[in-house]
Amino acid sequence: MSEPIAKYRDVHKSFGDVEVLKGIDLDIGPAEKVALIGPSGSGKTTIIRLLMTLENPTSGTIEVNGKNLWHMESKNGLVPANEKYLREVRGDIGMVFQHFNLFPHMTILENCMTAPIHVKKESKASARKRSLEMLEKVGLGDKVDLYPSQLSGGQKQRVAMARALVMRPKIMLFDEVTSALDPELVGEVLEVIRDLAKEGDMAMILVTHEMDFALDIADRVLFLNDGVIEADGPPSEIIGNPQSERLKDFLSRFTSSNYSHS
Amino acid sequence: MDSIIEISLVLLKGIKVTLIVLFFSIIFSTVIALVAGLSRSSSNLLLNKFTGFYVEIFRGTSLIVQLFWFSYALPGLFNIHLGSDIWAGILAISLNYGAYMSEIVRGSIAAVAPGQTEASIALNMSKFQRMRMVILPQAVRMMLPEYGNYLIQILKATSLVSLIGLTDILYYGDIYRSTHLSEAPIVYLLVLIFYFILALPLIAFTRKMEKVSKKGVAHG
Ligand SMILES: Nc1ncnc2c1ncn2[C@@H]1O[C@H](COP(=O)(O)OP(=O)(O)O)[C@@H](O)[C@H]1O
Ligand SMILES: [Mg+2]
Questions:
Q1: A200 CA from centroid of ligand 2 (Å)
Q2: Does the Cβ of A45 fall within 6 Å of ligand 1?
Q3: Which of A54, A102, A252, B45 is most buried, judging by how many CB atoms fall within 10 Å of its CB?
Q4: pLDDT single digits (tens) B131-189
């Protein structure tokens, strides 16, 4: 495997006295599609929020594209990263949230165009072109002048994906992006993610409870339990042929189909 | 009927001062509220505490006393002269209402859903861009209805400047009444009507802002 796009080394994270992550070591390859599964409260969201710089680790290091995320070089050795450095490193990462977090005061198109114009200093015309392309790609080319409140949950989530894609991230993080949706809207969102996964060049970490989906698109599945990665392997092994009792027990809660694919 | 017209003509003489005080007080208190509200939302502890001190002082003391301070006490004590009494009046009202309104600014900024900040971090916006393009536009929508209410209160507060000798509507009403004692009820009725008419556009503005603010905000 070539140089990993993201690299966790002995990462711990506590909130107050509670240690949520208890030593995470993890390499994500440049185009790898990783499904992160595990019981509620096991720390899945925290793992990807650390990468998105929404939380900082209590100890350990995280690298993105070979650069330390939270510490930077200075005359005095490694010092805590400042805002400027964080913004350099963070540019390779994109994230889609469980509750969409679209900007309600902007149209769909403005939601997508704002960051490329102001963050990447792209021209308005090229930001617009790229945003329209991405909105087209997620199937919302005809909704660009609406406001988020005028869309269904599934449409909102697809806008959120387009908005993140416009920034050309090298790694994209998905935090249970279908769990706030009505069941009948889940499919359209998964479809978009499936297409992205097939395109191939962007690394993806998907926190998900959609086991069929993970089995289908992931190169690799991580089972997180109680703040440690308990199992790590191809989906056919982890989901299709689970070894540990805890993993079997966890998977047995998802009854939608059997996982004994080849 | 004649006296109604006569009194109205007298009161009209005061409308200029009332409007000047109202106009500048609205401008200055709005600017003060924004600056103080942002300072109160800042993570800079010194700035935050200093602004908090200002807000509590001006909310915790009465506007009339503040007016007297700016027009009589400060000039006497420190030889600070604010040009003329009208600026003393405007400054007192602006600082007083700026303090109150800064709390709406701070509260509205805090009420924008944290997911909005997180999404803008994920899009790699700078702190300043996040505030300017994502947080403030939503906070402003939330504060508009209450802001409108404060504008109406500022109008009412302008009548206090007659107490430091400014020649506003109420001042002329008082003058007229002092020479036509039997007409006091009609004088003050007309004063009320004058203020109410001035308040009408502010009331309409507030209504409109209530509608605007219903759209385009993520609460959380
Ligand atoms: N900001 C926070 N403050 C305090 N506790 C938190 C915070 N974020 C997460 N936690 C706690 O950390 C644990 C793991 O949370 P999370 O990473 O969201 O788990 P998951 O996504 O797997 O459900 C939970 O017990 C949660 O309550
Ligand atoms: Mg979670």
A1: 25
A2: yes
A3: A102
A4: 999 999 999 989 988 999 999 999 999 999 999 989 999 999 999 999 988 888 999 99
